């Protein structure tokens, strides 16, 4: 209750208990209308007036005076709403500064709940700014807090956000461990499936798919779809279809992937989450580029539309994804210089922390250089991409990257280099004995 309203309520209650009218309480010093305004919370009295009223009402002056003491949390809720609006409207730097200010004030006032909400906002702002390492540390700190101190911040929402960061950072194994632990705790507690639980499952599907464990990812994706169907929640069903489409895409089942992503897009299109719809349009465009024949022009149009939305409402990663896919669409359409421009812009957005997405973008950049006749630059970039994927634990993708490098080496007549790169590809797929290549030396040593 606002301070003046609370004060007015106390004066009115005490007056009625004392059997006094407003005229009697006002006496010679005040007017009855002034007392009426006090009781309705429309006037701020001086300390002297409150002491006089307390004497007439036979209560301790502090009982009335404390209502006018400064509330340490006053304004925090409004500031949190402003910060939240900033992050939703695509202004992560403004949101970060606002959330940090609220967190500092809440800490000084000893208000645990508002501080947790502010720290949650700080973490999301950092993520949207592309500062993934810092964001991940903030998410992990929130998870370490006792549940009572997290207040309105949902455990599973933090888990999903942390896994999202770990995935972009290329720490797939850690992300899988976090998501698996959260799901195990849900099962142990016998928690009925929730929207947040489905999002954790869907996030786990994406992590397994990135790591190349497509059998597990496919099984879990179907489980997520079946479980989401019990909730009658379109967002949960949409998330499940979205990640199932990712698995089908990774498996090379492009027609199936298109159907699944179309279903997800239909689910999200009925809501008001423009950012999610634009991200799905990006995912759908990526699938269209792999259909036979590729629907390159349609993909380009979708990506242009998605980019307009995500530049306003999305994160740095969202924009980087769109730019990477635009580069891929340019390759399909034969616009090699456009592919270079969009791929380089994507890398600039990503910075140094988004290892997995950086590797994918580098592969597209390498293809553009190769088709423009710069085979040596293409080879260098592909090697860098393959090493990024290998370090991330994305062994299946790394294998494909090494294989692409081998093909580009073979096309330029570098047979020894091609055999070496093919060997790296086989090793990523778990094949540790390649007799025909045992005598081959690493061309990087020459």
Major β-sheet, in short?
none
Order of helices and strands: HHHHHHHHHHHHHHHHHHHHHHHH
Low-confidence stretches: 434-446
Class of secondary structure makeup: mainly alpha
Overall morphology: elongated
Proportion of beta-strand residues: under 5%
Share of helix, binned: over 70%
Separation, N- and C-terminal Cα atoms: 77 Å
Instruction: Tell me the number of helical segments per DSSP (H or I, 4 or more residues long).
Output: 24
> On the 0-100 scale, what is the average pLDDT?
86
Query: What is the CA-atom radius of gyration, in angstroms?
Result: 30 Å
What's the number of extended β-strand segments?
Answer: 0
Short overview:
Helix content is 76%, strand content 0%. The protein is mainly alpha-helical and 446 residues long.
Polypeptide structure, described:
This protein is mostly helical and 446 residues long. Helix content is 76%, strand content 0%. The protein has 24 helices and no strands. The chain has helices at 3-18, 22-26, 32-39, 47-57, 61-65, 76-88, 92-109, 112-128, 132-144, 147-150, 155-169, 172-189, 195-211, 214-228, 234-250, 254-269, 274-288, 296-313, 316-333, 336-350, 355-371, 375-392, 395-411, 415-428. Helix 14 packs antiparallel against helix 15 (234-250). The protein is elongated and about 105 Å long. 47% of the residues are buried. The model is unreliable at 434-446 (pLDDT under 50).
């Amino acid at each position: 209750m606002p301070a003046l309203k609370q004060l007015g309520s106390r004066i009115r209650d005490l007056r009625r208990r004392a059997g006094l009218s407003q005229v009697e309480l006002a006496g010679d010093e005040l007017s009855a209308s002034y007392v009426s305004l006090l009781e309705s919370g429309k006037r701020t009295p001086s300390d002297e007036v409150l002491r006089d009223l307390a004497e007439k009402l036979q209560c301790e002056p502090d009982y009335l005076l404390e209502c006018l003491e400064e509330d340490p949390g006053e304004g925090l809720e409004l500031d949190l709403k402003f910060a939240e609006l900033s992050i939703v409207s695509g202004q992560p730097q403004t949101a970060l500064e606002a959330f940090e200010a609220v967190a500092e004030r809440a800490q000084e006032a000893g208000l645990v709940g508002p501080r947790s909400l502010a720290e949650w906002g700080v973490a999301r702002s950092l993520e949207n700014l592309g500062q993934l390492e810092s964001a991940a540390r903030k998410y992990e700190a929130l998870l370490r807090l006792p549940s009572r101190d997290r207040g309105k911040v949902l455990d599973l929402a933090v888990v999903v956000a942390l896994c999202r960061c770990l995935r972009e950072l290329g720490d797939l194994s850690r992300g899988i461990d976090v998501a698996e632990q959260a799901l195990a705790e849900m099962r142990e507690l016998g928690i009925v499936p929730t929207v947040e639980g489905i999002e954790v499952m869907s996030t786990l599907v994406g992590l397994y798919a990135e790591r190349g464990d497509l059998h597990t990812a496919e099984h879990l994706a179907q489980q997520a779809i079946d479980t989401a169907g019990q909730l009658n929640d379109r967002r949960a069903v949409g998330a499940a279809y979205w990640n199932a489409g990712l698995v089908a895409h990774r498996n090379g089942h492009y027609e199936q992937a298109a159907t699944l992503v179309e279903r997800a897009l239909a689910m999200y299109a009925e809501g008001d989450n423009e950012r999610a719809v634009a991200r799905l349009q990006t995912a759908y465009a990526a699938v269209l580029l792999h259909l036979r024949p590729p629907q390159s022009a349609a993909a380009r149009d979708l990506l242009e539309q998605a980019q307009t939305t995500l530049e306003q409402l999305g994160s740095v990663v969202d924009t980087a994804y769109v730019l990477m896919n635009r580069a891929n669409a340019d390759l399909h359409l034969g616009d090699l210089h456009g592919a270079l421009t969009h791929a380089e812009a994507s890398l600039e957005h990503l910075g140094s922390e988004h290892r997995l997405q950086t590797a994918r973008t580098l592969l597209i950049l390498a293809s553009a250089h190769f088709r423009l006749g710069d085979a040596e630059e293409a080879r260098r970039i592909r090697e860098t991409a393959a090493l990024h994927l290998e370090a991330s634990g994305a062994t299946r993708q790394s294998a494909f990257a090494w294989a692409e490098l081998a093909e580009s080496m073979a096309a330029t007549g570098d047979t020894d280099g091609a055999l070496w790169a093919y060997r790296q590809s086989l090793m990523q797929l778990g094949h540790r004995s390649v007799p025909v290549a045992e005598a081959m030396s690493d061309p990087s040593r020459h």
